[in-house]
Specification:
Shape: globular
Number of strands: 15
Bound molecules: 6-O-phosphono-beta-D-fructofuranose
Largest sheet: 6 strands, mixed
Helix content: 40-55%
Strand order of the largest sheet: 1-2-15-14-12-13
Oligomer: single chain
């Protein structure tokens, strides 16, 4: 048994779970009309209402004991101070330094990294200003209208989410496109939208070795050179963002156009670094810096606010409560904002790549559940797709609902309808509908007793389904920065409690190695037999189709 599950805090929560598991939130709200005041908190314009959770004051006190038992405050301080908290890669974890808007130095191995952070920000500012004011021109004198970011995972999802979310702040006539998938369709369809003369490619890769990115980068370069007929023109149309400056230069990027970041920035935590270059180009550096400011303010909140009022800590502990004591396996993200449609995908990587781990920091297998399955969809679309399961299915799914009070596109009744739907869902999930209420409702509709008996069970909602609601004034760069930083710290807190390293991702490496081997098998005609029978069968089936096509001269 691990220390965690033997700890007094864990055992107390296990016992408390037995006390509270059958209590309905409907009764909790009836008995205590101050729940909202007790179980909500604010940071700037962000309001977190966590009162619709299966908790009482004792639950929260016990969860706080667990956080303190895990040493959250001291781990947090170590991370923020630049100590090595990524234990398997022996690295500091300092995405917070990238958005440190104070004059305070941050040290890694005795070096104040703020000097280079600020230098790259200045480089980004100089470059984005030039591109945006038309001073930077393509090979034939045209100014840049299209930015294509070629990257994957952390070198794609963050910038993509922000560029989508911040469209109202974008410059008219500037377009940000993203290519990530190895499927050539992604690149080919994107290239159909642009002309080489006014397109800037950003090759974004922390390592500059990621297969998909390198494949897309080389194909994009070929497409470009084929069209303009001049290799030298590449310098005006390709820039790179990487920790591997040597590899970026080797690819042929002008050294002046390589934007650096460092190994103490995790890929999925990198949108605050030069990986945010597409954001800065699309929105302008001032808006990128507003986003950094919002994240910085959340960092201060995380560092300075008592755990009891600390948003990331509260979200983390509530997640632990359901994940480890109710043993519910997934967590949904429901942004009631079309602009936040990529938030679930971004949080999938942030959370699942960080905390999808089985081995703890001491190298032992854990005997408790770690990171949840994260999924979601922009509201109200989700309501007409999978909410049925949330309301009446057999698998409880705790969820975060995020909504701006005001819309960036005020239009008639739309925002009122949207907010009403969001609040109605969390209310319905919490309250449910009892048998007697369902009967009454059907009676009012004039149904006969027989008809009521036939249908009434289907109209009952168990309720007692927990949600957090995060409401904010309106979606702007600063608030978005705060929201994203809040989730980063939530993931960190959970990782500390589970005693896992949230900052490595060894699990994605194995498949990459096997893909390399299978790729070699694909090149040779004739059947393979050295894999398992399933893999052999699938390889041989594809090879047969492929080589038949080659024979027919359809594929060159
Ligand atoms: O395969 C997973 C991963 O390593 C992610 O952690 C990372 O965000 C992504 O690949 C891309 O890596 P890179 O930025 O080095 O190309």
């Amino acid at each position: 048994m691990t220390n965690l599950v033997r700890s007094p805090a864990w055992l107390a929560l296990t016992a408390h779970y037995e006390e509270i598991r059958d209590t309905h939130m409907r009764d909790m709200f009836r008995e205590d009309v101050t729940r909202f005041d007790k179980f909500s908190c604010r940071m700037n314009d962000l309001l977190l209402d966590y009162s619709k959770n299966r908790i009482n004051e004792k639950t929260m006190a016990l969860l706080m004991d667990l956080a303190r038992h895990a040493g959250i405050e001291s781990w947090r301080d170590h991370m923020l101070a630049g100590d090595v908290v990524n234990c398997t890669e022996h690295r500091s974890v300092l995405h917070t330094a990238l958005r440190n808007r104070s004059d305070n130095p941050v040290f890694v191995k005795g070096e104040n990294v703020m000097l280079k952070v600020n230098a790259v920000l200045a480089q980004m500012r100089g470059f984005t200003d030039k591109v945006r004011n038309g001073e930077w021109r393509g090979y034939n004198g045209e100014s840049i209208k299209n930015i294509i970011n070629i990257g994957i995972g952390g070198s794609d999802l963050g910038p993509q989410l922000v560029c989508e979310a911040m469209k109202p702040y974008a410059r008219r006539g500037m377009r940000a496109l993203f290519v990530s998938n190895a499927d050539p369709t992604h690149l080919v369809e994107t290239l159909k939208l642009v002309e080489p003369e006014n397109t800037l490619f950003i090759i974004s890769s922390k390592t500059f070795t990621t297969q998909e990115t390198m494949l897309n980068a080389h194909s994009a370069r070929k497409w470009f050179v084929d069209r303009v007929g001049d290799d030298k023109a590449v310098a005006k149309h390709f820039v790179a963002v990487s920790t591997n400056v040597t590899a970026a230069k080797k690819f042929g990027i002008d050294p002046n156009n390589v934007f650096e970041f460092w190994d103490w920035v995790g890929g999925r935590y990198s949108l605050w670094s030069a990986i945010g270059l597409p954001i800065a180009l699309f929105l302008g550096m001032e808006h990128f810096e507003e986003m950094l400011q919002g994240a910085y303010e959340m960092d201060r909140h995380f560092a300075e606010t008592p755990l009891e009022k600390n948003m990331p800590v509260l979200l983390a502990l509530l997640g632990i409560w359901y994940n480890n004591f109710f043993e519910w396996q997934s967590h949904a993200i429901m942004p009631y904002s079309q602009y936040l449609q990529r938030l679930p995908a971004f949080l999938q990587q942030l959370d699942m790549e960080s905390n999808g781990k089985t081995i703890d920091r001491t190298g032992h297998r854990v005997d408790y559940l770690t990171g949840p399955i994260i999924w979601g969809e922009a509201g109200t679309n989700g309501q007409h797709a999978f909410f049925q399961l949330l309301h009446q299915g057999t698998k409880p799914v705790p969820a975060d609902f995020l909504i701006p009070a005001l819309n960036n596109n005020p239009l008639g009744l739309h925002q009122r309808v949207l907010v009403s739907n969001c609040l109605a869902q969390t209310k319905a999930l919490m309250l449910g509908k009892r048998y007697v209420e369902a009967v009454e409702e059907l009676q009012k509709q004039g149904l006969s007793k027989e008809d009521i008996n036939e249908v009434v069970q289907h109209k009952v909602f168990e309720g007692n389904k927990p949600t957090n609601t995060i409401i904010f004034e309106r979606l702007c760069p600063k608030t978005l920065g705060s929201i994203l930083a809040m989730y980063e710290h939530k993931v960190f807190v959970q990782g500390i409690i589970w005693n896992i390293n949230s900052f490595d991702q060894w699990g994605v490496e194995y498949g990459k190695v096997l893909a390399g081997q299978i790729q070699k098998d694909m090149e040779q005609p004739g059947n393979v037999s050295h894999h398992d029978s399933s893999t052999n069968g699938l390889i041989n089936y594809r090879k047969r189709i492929y080589f038949e096509e080659v024979e027919k001269n359809k594929i060159v």
